[in-house]
Amino acid sequence: AAAAAEDETLDDVRQAMEDANEQLNQLNAIADLSRKISGQTLAMVGDRQALEAELGVAPPDPLRLIRGMRLFVDGDAHRDLASASLGTLNVLYLALLELGLEQRLERSEIGHVILAVEEPEAHLHPHLQRLIFRRLLGTSGSSRTTLVTTQSPYIASVAPPRSLVVLRSAGGRTEARAASTADL
Predict the structure, then answer these.
(1) Phi, psi at residue 2, to the nearest 5°?
(2) Global pTM?
(3) CA-CA distance, 16 to 29, in Å (whole number)?
(4) Nearest alpha carbon to residue 87 among 127, 54, 143, 33
(5) Distance separating alpha carbons of residues 113 and 104, to the nearest angstrom
(6) Which is nearest to 135 in space by CA: 164, 105, 101, 94?
(7) Which pLDDT value is given to residue 55?
(8) C-alpha angle 63-68-70 in degrees, rounded to nearest 5
(9) Nearest-angstrom CA–CA distance, 1 and 16
(10) Per residue, what are the HEC states of the chain?
């Protein structure tokens, strides 16, 4: 993200952050707290090791700002990820994983993706299972192979029928039956 930002835009961001930090440090309570922190470190370690503390919202360096950005969910609610449900986090994880893999394929860093997902239905509502895996299973092709182990009828319902492999226990061992050769 940082590499894609324009230098002129980054200079505007730098100036805006410097202005915001300066305005906050002009507030008496903030300036007083900064002085107290500096004074306390001076009393603890002496003038050679004391910290010159200054409070700020964030560093004015745009590249450090970009690296320190946090992701929020639920639109205007701006919920922190720590308060999101496990289902929301699973959707976000799959979305970020897919984005990262797509970027690496586009840049030819990798030639093929084998995406293996085990029991993905945990914490996902049935409609999300169908939506997500219809997409993931439908994007398999020359650059992607997707393998999913699941007991979810919702995921199985959106899988291409010929891609299904059923595993069953029989006589103390596991037997596999592939639908790719079935007479459907």
Answers:
(1) -65, -40
(2) 0.69
(3) 22
(4) 127
(5) 10
(6) 94
(7) 84
(8) 130
(9) 19
(10) CCCCCCHHHHHHHHHHHHHHHHHHHCCHHHHHHHHHHHHHHHHHHCCCCCCCCCCCCCCCCHHHHHHCCCCEECHHHCEEHHHCCHHHHHHHHHHHHHHHHHHHHHCCCCCCEEEEEECCCCCCCHHHHHHHHHHHHHCCCCCEEEEEECCCHHHHCCCCHHHCEEEEEECCEEEEEEHHHCCC
Residues for the chain: how many in total? 184
Structural contact between residues 146 and 159, judged by C-beta atoms closer than 8 angstroms: no
Which residues are paired to 174 by β-bridges? 169
Q: Are strands 144-149 and 113-118 parallel, antiparallel or unpaired?
A: parallel
Confirm if 157 and 146 have CB atoms less than 8 A apart.
Answer: no
C-alpha of 127 from chain center: 21
- Across the 184 residues of the chain, what is the mean pLDDT of every consecutive 10-residue run? 65 88 90 90 88 83 84 84 89 92 94 92 91 84 87 92 90 91 79
What Rg do the C-alpha atoms of the chain give, in angstroms? 26
Beta strands 72-73 and 79-80 are antiparallel
Alpha-carbon span 160 to 184, nearest angstrom: 12
